[in-house]
Amino acid sequence: MKRACVIGWPIEHSRSPLIHGYWLAQHGIDGSYTKVAVAPDDVAQFLRTLPEQGFVGCNVTVPHKEIAFSIAEEVEEAARVVGAANTLWLEGDRLFATNTDTYGYMTYLSHVVPDWLAHDGPVCILGAGGAARAIVYGFLETGVEEVRVFNRTRERAEAIADQFGPRVKVFDWDNRSDASRDACVLVNTTAVGLKGNGSLGIDFAGFNPDCVVSDIVYVPLETQLIADAKSAGLRTVDGLGMLLHQAVPGFERWFGVRPQVTPELRKRIIADIEG
Ligand SMILES: NC(=O)c1ccc[n+]([C@@H]2O[C@H](COP(=O)([O-])OP(=O)(O)OC[C@H]3O[C@@H](n4cnc5c(N)ncnc54)[C@H](OP(=O)(O)O)[C@@H]3O)[C@@H](O)[C@H]2O)c1
Fold first, then answer.
1. Which of 187, 196, 254 is nearest to 215 (CA)?
2. Where along the chain is the active site annotated (predicted)?
């Protein structure tokens, strides 16, 4: 039996076992996917002994993504760019790592709004953490000419601009509404709105009517930002799709089948979020 897991600290909140468990059952695979609470001091040892523990690989969540990146022996470009890994697997006894957040975000965006790139205008990113870096990379790879980054702590936005070059422009956090009016896509990658905490205070008056508003926070599924954008008549993309799609490459690596993100899977995770 092939075994995979997700590690984090804490880990109780993780919905990854529900996602992978659904696919294992759907494909009748003799495998398991569990969650394991691993304290920060134990991560290195845990990852180095994956084979001895009988795991073929694992997902890594907060706060272990950076250390996982540094421990892996082979790192794919997607993880190198972000400086963090969320998906690890063994090839022989070598530990490989990637980051599937870029894939998850861009795949779902294109699924919900296939023509998002058809509109002129910059992409505006709120936040400058690990998720922001993955998403900035995705948009630049797709050929977007200008990505604007707004972050409460300006230096972190500047670090992203320094890494990716002149197509990334840093704007003041306080200017996030005014400087996003011409956006083709606005993305919240901050933790603001999680479990209803805080408000981004975006005023959608005067926004490009073709703007797509997306939030990677998915608890609640309809964040205040998404609700406000809908009220303003804008198209929206929720954060759950990114979570579901980022899980696909790991499952394929560990269990040998490329799974589908189905409406039934989505329904199950929504029931868990709202339950
Ligand atoms: N849907 C998905 O699959 C998915 C995947 C990854 C992450 N996420 C979610 O995305 C969010 C960010 O994740 P991350 O890994 O990038 O975290 P991170 O590296 O810790 O970055 C957090 C970001 O949120 C900002 N922030 C936090 N509190 C704020 C506040 N009160 N006002 C303004 N900005 C605030 C931080 O700004 P400062 O720099 O000023 O602190 C920073 O830009 C989390 O909610 C996470 O759950 C979702």
1. 187
2. 65
Q: Give the separation between CA 106 and CA 97, rounded to whole angstroms.
A: 19
Q: What is the mean pLDDT of residues 45-65?
A: 97
Domain spanning 102-239: CATH superfamily: NAD(P)-binding Rossmann-like Domain (3.40.50.720)
Q: Is 53 annotated in some ligand binding site?
A: no
Cα–ligand 1 centroid distance for 171 (angstroms):
17
The residues annotated with a catalytic role in the active site are: 65
Looking at the chain, list the stretches that DSSP marks H as alpha helix, in order from N- to C-terminal side.
Answer: 16-26, 43-48, 65-71, 77-82, 101-112, 130-142, 154-164, 224-231, 240-246, 248-255, 263-274
Answer yes or no: is 153 a known binding residue: yes
CATH of 2-99+247-274, one of 3.40.50.1370, 3.40.50.10860, 3.10.580.10, 2.40.160.40: 3.40.50.10860
What is the 8-class DSSP label of residue 126? E
Give the residues surrounding ligand 1 with Cβ less than 6 Å away.
Answer: 101, 104, 127-132, 151-153, 156, 189-192, 194, 198, 216-218, 239, 242-243, 246
Contact 61, 86 (CB under 8 A): yes
Q: CA 81 to CA 128: how far, in whole Å?
A: 14
**pLDDT tens digits, one per residue of 172-202:** 999 999 999 999 999 999 999 999 999 999 9
Q: Where are the domains of the chain?
A: 2-99+247-274, 102-239
* Closest atom, ligand 1, to C-alpha of 131: 16
194 CA closest ligand 1 atom index: 45
Nearest CA to ligand 1 atom 41: 153
